[in-house]
Amino acid sequence: RLPQALIIGVKKGGTRALLEAIRAHPDVRAVGTEPHFFDRNYEKGLEWYRNVMPKTLDGQITMEKTPSYFVTNEAPRRIHSMAKDTKLIVVVRNPVTRAISDYTQTLSKKPEIPTFEVLAFKNRTLGLIDASWSAIRIGIYALHLENWLQYFPLSQILFVSGERLITDPAGEMAKVQDFLGLKRIVTEKHFYFNKTKGFPCLKKPEDSSAPRCLGKSKGRTHPKIDPDVIHRLRKFYKPFNVMFYQMTGQDFQWEQEESDK
């Protein structure tokens, strides 16, 4: 079947962790790879997309995740025309850490790229942030959300905190299961905290086999970034964050985090 629920974003927010956790639910069947249908493969048509999906039984939910959908202009309209009652899940995290994580991922593939500082500024002296750089642009959540709200009511979109997915995975998963209309089967029994990785790993409650942790590409060490650059980025994002909190009716407390440090 075509999916009834999609994890649409955001890149480096925790979408893989969320997908793995929700796949532990017996009533969910999900594609492991990202189909990129609504951004890159749309011309292949809905039949192609349907064939990518796993087979399901009655009462099971079909899902997929492609984090770039959230920032793709055409995605909301295309998803709406497939099924206007599709449930959408967005994992968001502090846009500053998200941007650094995004850069870290690119750096691991292309070690020759300029430093984060060079890419982040249009003009370093004036402190002008380059909002056209995708690592920074993705984190302007309010801007992208506006596009989705033209097609979907807020009640059809669940915002998951990437931070709480690490500190309280069972709590966030309870919200996800409620949103999808599922029994709360994925609970704290499914998680154990891996100190080396710094985030939770999944285990099957009845199964004594080793817990599944996310792969090597997750939890990379971030490069050291000049504190002044981080300060300027926080200032840049703050008004957008506030707007996002107002739009979603949820305070993700990214500003509080900063004052604790």
TrEMBL record:
<feature type="binding site">
    <location>
        <begin position="218"/>
        <end position="222"/>
    </location>
    <ligand>
        <name>3'-phosphoadenylyl sulfate</name>
    </ligand>
</feature>
<feature type="domain" description="Sulfotransferase">
    <location>
        <begin position="3"/>
        <end position="238"/>
    </location>
</feature>
<keyword id="KW-0808">Transferase</keyword>
<keyword id="KW-1015">Disulfide bond</keyword>
<keyword id="KW-0333">Golgi apparatus</keyword>
<dbReference type="InterPro" id="IPR000863">
    <property type="entry name" value="Sulfotransferase_dom"/>
</dbReference>
<keyword id="KW-0812">Transmembrane</keyword>
<feature type="disulfide bond">
    <location>
        <begin position="201"/>
        <end position="213"/>
    </location>
</feature>
<keyword id="KW-0735">Signal-anchor</keyword>
<keyword id="KW-1133">Transmembrane helix</keyword>
<protein>
    <recommendedName>
        <fullName>Sulfotransferase</fullName>
        <ecNumber>2.8.2.-</ecNumber>
    </recommendedName>
</protein>
<keyword id="KW-0325">Glycoprotein</keyword>
<dbReference type="InterPro" id="IPR027417">
    <property type="entry name" value="P-loop_NTPase"/>
</dbReference>
<feature type="active site" description="For sulfotransferase activity">
    <location>
        <position position="12"/>
    </location>
</feature>
<dbReference type="GO" id="GO:0000139">
    <property type="term" value="C:Golgi membrane"/>
</dbReference>
<feature type="binding site">
    <location>
        <begin position="12"/>
        <end position="16"/>
    </location>
    <ligand>
        <name>3'-phosphoadenylyl sulfate</name>
    </ligand>
</feature>
<feature type="binding site">
    <location>
        <position position="93"/>
    </location>
    <ligand>
        <name>3'-phosphoadenylyl sulfate</name>
    </ligand>
</feature>
<dbReference type="GO" id="GO:0008467">
    <property type="term" value="F:[heparan sulfate]-glucosamine 3-sulfotransferase activity"/>
</dbReference>
<dbReference type="InterPro" id="IPR037359">
    <property type="entry name" value="NST/OST"/>
</dbReference>
<comment type="similarity">
    <text>Belongs to the sulfotransferase 1 family.</text>
</comment>
<keyword id="KW-0472">Membrane</keyword>
<feature type="binding site">
    <location>
        <position position="101"/>
    </location>
    <ligand>
        <name>3'-phosphoadenylyl sulfate</name>
    </ligand>
</feature>
<dbReference type="Pfam" id="PF00685">
    <property type="entry name" value="Sulfotransfer_1"/>
</dbReference>
